[in-house]
Design brief:
13-stranded mixed beta sheet
Length: 242
């Protein structure tokens, strides 16, 4: 029996690949059900769809692509470089090891890159997005999100909404843009981190003010960001993004 022939048929049905196939190193496509499925992909470069229900999908080894669908899903990439989609529901996504692409989708999600150089998208909802280990790129969408870079040199973009950004260790870049909300940057280190400016922003046209032990960055009367605990900025702290 090939894994591509297997679909779960009930609530909490487990697809056991060691029993379903004589070759668990093959590249397979697995479909869940509209109930809550437990899918273990094991080895191979696999594709899986959880569909509706609160699903648990583990990528195992291999470069896998899988999506939780509707429901509150738990999605773990495992080893190697995976592509993981949460879609609707309050999902928990973790890339595991490897250079992963994680896209949370709608609702309020927790999305983590894990180890490796990951790209993580929060998209809709009030999301928590973590880079963890490696040099990660974190992008949130609408609503008010919390971003944490983890170790490594990370790129953090809150996009729309009033977001909280923390780079943690490493030389991090925090994106500022017009009409995207007012962000709080909790751990900016002058001389190490950078403020990435999206056009039409330019370092010479910004209004930078010290306010109660914090530094605010504004443009045309719009507050772009508050840098907590920062008392001064240097020209080298800014970089233009194209």
């Amino acid at each position: 029996m090939r894994l591509s022939d297997v679909s779960g048929v009930g609530s909490n049905y487990q697809l056991d690949f060691f029993r379903a196939s004589s070759d668990n190193n093959s590249d397979d496509t697995v479909n869940g059900t509209d109930s809550g499925d437990l899918i273990n992909l094991l080895n191979g470069n696999d594709i899986a769809f959880g569909f509706a229900g609160n699903d648990t999908i583990d990528g195992g080894s291999g470069d896998d692509t899988f999506a939780g669908g509707a429901g509150n899903d738990l999605l773990t990439g495992g080893d190697n470089s995976d592509i993981v989609f949460g879609n609707t529901g309050n999902d928990t996504l973790d890339g595991g090891n490897g250079n992963d692409i994680i896209a949370a989708g709608k609702d309020d999600d927790l999305a983590s890159g894990g180890n490796g150089n990951d790209i993580v998208f929060g998209n809709l909802g009030n999301d928590r997005v973590n880079g963890d280990g490696g040099d990660d790129s974190l992008f949130c969408g609408r609503d008010n999100d919390t971003l944490s870079g983890g170790t490594g040199n990370d790129f953090l973009s809150g996009d729309l909404g009033n977001d909280e950004l923390t780079g943690n260790s490493g030389a991090d870049t925090f994106v500022l843009s017009v009409g995207r909300g007012s962000d709080i940057i909790t751990d900016f280190t002058s001389g190490e981190d950078r403020l990435g400016l999206v056009q039409p922003l330019d370092a010479n046209t910004l209004t930078i003010e010290l306010n109660g032990g914090n530094t605010t960055v504004s443009f045309g009367g719009e507050l772009l960001a508050t840098l907590t605990g920062v008392t001064s900025l240097n020209p080298s702290d800014f970089v233009s993004l194209t």
